[in-house]
Design goal:
Blueprint: H1 2-20, E1 27-41, E2 44-45, E3 54-57, E4 59-71, E5 76-91, E6 94-97, E7 102-125, E8 131-157, E9 160-163, E10 168-173, E11 181-193, E12 196-205, E13 219-229, E14 231-232
Antiparallel strand pairs: 1-4, 1-13, 1-14, 2-3, 3-5, 4-5, 5-7, 6-7, 7-8, 8-9, 8-10, 8-11, 11-12, 12-13
Length: about 230
């Protein structure tokens, strides 16, 4: 009896997934909204000569836009879109301390990058499961970049920190520091149920240096989780 119930359940799920897939020859528009976790891969900040850098860590951002997907067959489609993506990086607090000399404190460091992205993807439907694998190419254009940080330095007297001056909180536009164009290979997996989709993607950047004036090999690293709703034309 349990075998028959299991077989019936699998049949129903397969039929539901097949019905959810767009028909070959159709185009579906997906408005998308989600969030990013991004950082500068390989980037480090040094505030002294102690050899201990402040490493970059992931920063939260949002992404939104729309993609159009054309269904060639039951199992293959292609998509192109235009997305806004808020990316950047933040850094661990960097704190150097010499009990008989000086100290420096560097914290709350953030870069916020606003990109406009054009992804072109191949979509491979994994049977009738509702899942699909995606990969392709993506061009990003930097609209604007800002930075913010807090820095303080001073002397250590009898174990107490005496600032040389009040701590400095700085922020401003740093767009000209970075290259405008960023090329990447987005790869990921998507799940579709009826008209709703959930996409998980990772952008493999092959722009090996995002800074204009530093030959460092620093690149963007970005993970996105995006929801979509399809309108079939």
């Amino acid at each position: 009896m349990n075998k028959y119930l299991t077989a019936l359940l699998l049949l129903v799920l397969t039929a539901t997934a097949a019905k959810a897939q767009p028909e070959p020859g159709t185009t579906t528009i997906y408005p998308r909204l989600g969030f990013n976790l991004s950082k500068f891969a390989g980037d480090e900040i040094y505030v002294s000569d102690d050899g201990d850098p402040a490493k970059s860590k992931y920063k939260f951002g949002v992404t939104a836009g729309a993609e159009a997907e054309y269904q060639f067959t039951r199992f293959f489609a292609a998509s192109a879109g235009l997305l806004y993506s808020m990316q950047g990086t933040s850094y661990d607090e960097k704190n150097t301390y010499d009990p008989n000399g000086s100290y420096s404190l560097f914290k709350d460091v953030k870069y916020t990058m606003h990109y406009l992205k054009l992804p072109v993807l191949a979509v491979f439907n994994l049977g009738y499961s509702g899942f699909s694998a995606k990969c392709g190419v993506q061009l990003g254009y930097l609209l604007n970049a800002t930075s913010s940080n807090y820095y303080e330095s001073g002397q250590v007297v009898d174990g107490e920190r005496i600032p040389n001056a009040p701590g400095d909180e700085a922020s401003g536009t740093v767009t000209d520091v970075f290259h405008r164009l960023d090329f990447s290979i987005p790869v990921g997996i998507s799940y579709r149920h009826d008209r709703f989709t959930v996409d998980l993607r990772y952008d493999i950047s092959f722009t090996r240096n995002i800074y204009k004036y530093i030959d460092s090999g620093i690149r963007n690293s970005n993970i996105s989780l995006v929801l979509g709703y399809g309108f079939t034309l």
